[in-house]
């Protein structure tokens, strides 16, 4: 049991298969915090998945498969409360209440909103709905997710840092206006990682087709790694440090992702050996890719095996989703009722 038991909450959108960015930015921390005995709430953010929708997508199926992957990675529905956002519909009620004190200017400064808008504009509005009320309200919905369970900490990758800060801000504003009601969570830790994409772009992300996935089989892993662009000239490493956080940013971006993965997955001596080769400008990218592919596939093998375990099926996922939605609902309703009372509309006369 942890020295101090904290409330931990985090979510992932059901937009596809889980990749290494999700794992090293988020899931490995979910598992660690669960094993430390904290009160953990992990959910699939299916409402959030709808913020960029333009046509029907089978998010239900994607949710089930993502949950089977969560379980395969070590999340345990008996230790953590694992649920689906839309099974806690009072989150939408809290979003509505919080929306009343959230300025539009504040939302327009959100970097994710700005990035999504830019991307959607690049496709000339042919994908998604760039100006939806839902997309703009993304951080308010996320604040509701966090505040509804009175989370102390929100383990997320670096790309979500600003969203958590916005949730802190909304909670503080609420408390200032209506009296101490909501718990303000802590900021995202400085060490939060952002894993670059296989194409060398700043972030590995599902929508950018640059991911290495946890369920990729050995042939796909090798194909993807062989496809990484390494023909660029090595850049000199003007440091004696071996620390991945210091040397990797000095490499060409697409080579950097290979070294980052190696530093995360291979024993330190293997990483140092390849770093030495880089410093001596040897021709080694072929072996680097095949060596790395072996470590990646060895990492994936037990996850794939547990994913395919007959006990880890749709029925068992549905059962724990139902049970866990029941476990989180009372806590969540208490928060919504407190906010209603604080704002002055009083408690619901309908809910027991
Ligand atoms: P998403 O897939 O965008 O819903 O992200 C789910 C979780 O994975 C969040 O905590 C993200 O911060 C984290 N995450 C996604 N992509 C990356 C990445 N490339 N590097 C680090 N963390 C990431
Ligand atoms: N926005 C997060 C992402 O894209 C997913 C998410 C939704 C989330 N609600 C949350 C993460 C609440 C942490 C807490 O990755």
Q: Whole-number radius of gyration?
A: 22 Å
What is the second-level CATH architecture of the largest domain?
3-Layer(aba) Sandwich
Proportion in β-strands: under 5%
Per the principal axes of the C-alpha atoms, what is the gross shape? globular
Spatial order of the strands in the main sheet? 1-2-3
Give the ordered list of helices and strands.
EHEHHEHHHHHHHHHHHH
Q: If you had to describe this structure to a student in words, what would you say it looks like?
A:
This protein is mostly helical and 352 residues long. The chain is built from 15 helices and three strands. The protein has helices at residues 20-35, 46-49, 59-72, 90-99, 104-108, 111-122, 133-136, 138-148, 161-178, 218-226, 244-247, 253-265, 268-279, 285-307, 314-343, and strands at 7-12, 39-44, 81-84. The protein has a three-stranded parallel beta sheet. The mean pLDDT is 92. The site of tryptophan has 14 residues, from strand 1 and helix 8.
């Amino acid at each position: 049991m942890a020295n101090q038991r904290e409330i931990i909450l985090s979510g992932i959108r059901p937009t596809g298969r889980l990749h290494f960015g999700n794992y090293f930015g988020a899931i490995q921390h979910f598992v660690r915090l669960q094993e430390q005995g904290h009160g953990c709430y992990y959910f699939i953010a299916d409402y959030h998945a709808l913020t960029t929708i333009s046509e029907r997508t089978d998010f239900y199926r994607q949710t089930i498969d993502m949950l089977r992957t969560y379980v395969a990675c070590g999340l345990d529905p008996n230790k953590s409360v694992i649920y689906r956002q839309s099974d806690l519909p009072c989150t939408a009620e809290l979003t509505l209440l919080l929306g009343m004190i959230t300025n539009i200017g504040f939302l327009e400064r959100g970097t994710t909103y700005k990035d999504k808008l830019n991307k959607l504009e690049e496709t000339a509005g042919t994908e998604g709905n760039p100006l939806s009320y839902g997309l703009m309200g993304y951080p308010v919905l996320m604040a509701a997710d966090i505040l509804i369970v009175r989370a102390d900490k929100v383990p997320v990758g670096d790309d979500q840092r600003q969203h958590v800060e916005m949730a802190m801000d909304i909670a503080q504003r609420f408390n200032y206006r209506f009296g101490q009601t909501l718990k303000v969570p802590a900021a995202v830790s400085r060490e939060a990682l952002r894993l670059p994409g296989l194409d060398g772009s700043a972030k590995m992300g599902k929508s950018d087709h640059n991911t290495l996935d946890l369920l990729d089989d050995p042939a796909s892993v090798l194909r993807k790694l062989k496809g990484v662009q390494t023909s660029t000239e090595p850049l000199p490493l003007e440091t004696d440090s071996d620390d991945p956080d210091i040397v990797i940013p000095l490499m060409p971006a697409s080579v950097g992702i290979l070294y980052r993965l190696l530093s995360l997955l291979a024993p330190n001596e293997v990483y140092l050996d390849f770093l030495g080769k880089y410093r001596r400008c040897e021709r080694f990218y072929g072996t680097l890719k095949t060596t790395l592919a072996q470590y990646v596939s060895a990492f994936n093998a037990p996850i794939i095996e547990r994913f395919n375990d007959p006990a880890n099926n749709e029925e068992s996922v549905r059962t724990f989703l139902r049970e866990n939605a029941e476990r989180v609902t009372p806590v969540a309703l208490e928060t919504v009722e407190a906010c209603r009372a604080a704002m002055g509309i009083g408690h619901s006369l309908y809910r027991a």
